[in-house]
Every structure is written in structure tokens, then in C-alpha cells.
Design brief:
With 205 residues, the protein is of the alpha+beta class. The chain has two domains: 1-35, no CATH class; 36-201, tt1808, chain A, CATH 3.90.1570. It contains four helices and twelve strands, in the order H-E-E-H-E-E-E-E-E-H-H-E-E-E-E-E. The chain has helices at 11-15, 38-55, 118-122, 124-131, and strands spanning 21-26, 29-34, 66-70, 74-76, 79-81, 85-89, 108-112, 136-141, 146-153, 156-164, 168-169, 179-180.
Length: 205
């Protein structure tokens, strides 16, 4: 969705967007989408809690060393992106930014897919994350109960693996723990390979 009458979008345009929408500036265009569904939010929250416990607070024998932020605003060159979750290695941060956006690219980002963002998340945003030198990208689809993990190699995304439903995963950059994917869809039963996921699209935005 573009609201800038053909001219490149500015940060003032982004700040004018109503608060019930998520706004980004991508390749000069102002793009907005609605707040996500409960299923989307449940998956993002569960993943943030699980990774944060081990890699931010050192619970359950985790190594710590990270800071995670939900829906941070990232100023990456002329683009302003809002991933669902981002993580920074602590040694790269001297403190919180003085503004409501970070100009320090994270080390890891996660996009949780929904109807209004899937095409953008899988195409232009993945390209911009690579151009910014972000080392790791996770894509979570709570409707398909799918996790895809990518590592940046020579500015291209290398697919490390895809996992689904009830798999247990140890994936970069968080190989120090085993993540049970059933935790990411807490109110849904794990899907079998022959099951139709259509019911999980209910309420998708």
C-alpha cells in the first residue's frame, strides 16, 4: 500500500500511518499491513520466549549472549523494515538506541507469515536483509506449521533446512538448544503430512 503520490516515501509519511497498522518503507514505497492474527502472534510470542530464555537469560542451561526485540523498527540504508522478531549478539550493542529505530542491523531476523505479508516477506524483505548483511533468517508459517532456516553465504541465502509440525530442531545460530516446534502452535494439533491445513487459515490477516 503506497500513500506518497509517486514520490519516495519519507519517515514523516511513516509516522503519519495510523497506529493500528504496521508501516515500512521498502525501496522508496510506504507499505502497510494490519496487525497479525492471534495464531500468528502466538507463534511469534512462543518463539521469542523460547529463544529469549536460553540465549538472553541463560535459563535451561542456555549460553546467553543475545538480545531479542519483537517488531523492532530497523533503519537499513533508505529502507525501514519491521521483522516479527530480531536478535543481536550482545557484543555488537553498547546500549539501546536513542531513537525508536535501530541503525545497527541484527544478526538474526524472523518473519512469521500471514496472508497480507507472505509475498513481501519471502521476496523483497529477504533480499533487503541479505543486502544488509544479516547473517541468519528464519521463516515461520503457523498455518502450514513450517519452519525454514537460512544462513547468509556470499550475500545469498542458503537453506539450512525445513521442519514441520512436531519436529525437534537445532538450527543456526541457535544450535545450542533443541526447539520443539509444537511449542510454536500451542493451541493447534500437529498436522500430519496428508492433513489439509485450511482450517489453520481461519482469521488470517
Amino acid at each position: 500500500m503506497t500513500k506518497t503520490s509517486g514520490r519516495p516515501a519519507t519517515y514523516a509519511d511513516l509516522e503519519a500511518v495510523p497506529s493500528h497498522l504496521v508501516a515500512e518503507i521498502i525501496d522508496g514505497e510506504l507499505m502497510t499491513h494490519p496487525r497479525p492474527s492471534f495464531r500468528h502472534g502466538g507463534s511469534a510470542t512462543a518463539l521469542n520466549i523460547r529463544l529469549g530464555a536460553a540465549f538472553q537469560f541463560k535459563d535451561s542451561g542456555g549460553p546467553g549472549g543475545w538480545l531479542f526485540i519483537v517488531e523492532p523498527e530497523l533503519k537499513l540504508g533508505s529502507n525501514v523494515l519491521v521483522p516479527d522478531i530480531a536478535g543481536w549478539r550482545r557484543e555488537r550493542l553498547s546500549g539501546y538506541p536513542d531513537t525508536n529505530r535501530s541503525t545497527i542491523a541484527p544478526d538474526w531476523v524472523c518473519e512469521v507469515l500471514s496472508a497480507s505479508t507472505e509475498r513481501r516477506d519471502r521476496t523483497v524483505k529477504t533480499r533487503l536483509y541479505a543486502e544488509a548483511g544479516i547473517g541468519h533468517l528464519w521463516i515461520v508459517d503457523p498455518r502450514q506449521q513450517l519452519l525454514e532456516v537460512f544462513t547468509l553465504l556470499e550475500r545469498q541465502w542458503l537453506l539450512e533446512g525445513s521442519w514441520t509440525s512436531g519436529d525437534v530442531v537445532s538450527a543456526p545460530p541457535f544450535e545450542a538448544i533443541s526447539l520443539s516446534l509444537v511449542d510454536l502452535w500451542p493451541l493447534d494439533q500437529p498436522l500430519g503430512f496428508n492433513e489439509d491445513p485450511q482450517a489453520l487459515y481461519a482469521g488470517d490477516r
